[in-house]
Amino acid sequence: MKKVYICSPLGGDVSDNLERAKQYARYVFSCGAAPVVPHFYALVLEDGNPEERQLGMQAGRSLLWLCDEMWIFGDHVSAGMREEIRFCQNLGLKIRTITEKQLLSGKAP
Q: How many CB atoms lie within 10 A of CB 61?
């Protein structure tokens, strides 16, 4: 099964963004792939603590080595997402963008 790294915002409204990450994971499953969701580190690390946020970001990037693709969700790219995207590009992984409109339509990319 293809492994897809979910790239979407976390900071700011962490609770709302975690809920969105769950929706994105469900979408990836519906496309026949296995979602890799680094956002779930926020359940054990404090995103508001700079050291713990950095630890979570590093752990998330380490997961990219195991993935086949990165899917960017939503219509906003945060600074943290830009870091993940650059890392992914350096690894040569395929990147797809899934807009809110595509997500709502339920159609696979």
A: 17
Whole-structure pTM value: 0.90
| Residue segments in the chain with a per-residue pLDDT below the cut of 70 | 106-109
Q: Helix count (H) and strand count (E) of the chain?
A: 4, 4
The topology (CATH level 3) of 3-105 is Rossmann fold (3.40.50)
Sequence ranges of the domains in the chain: 3-105
| DSSP characters over 1-62 | --EEEEE---SSSHHHHHHHHHHHHHHHHHTT-EEE-GGGGGGTS-TTSHHHHHHHHHHHHH
Q: How many CB atoms lie within 10 A of CB 20?
A: 19
**Predicted pLDDT at 7:** 96
Write the pLDDT tens digit of every residue in 65-93: 999 999 999 888 988 899 999 999 999 99
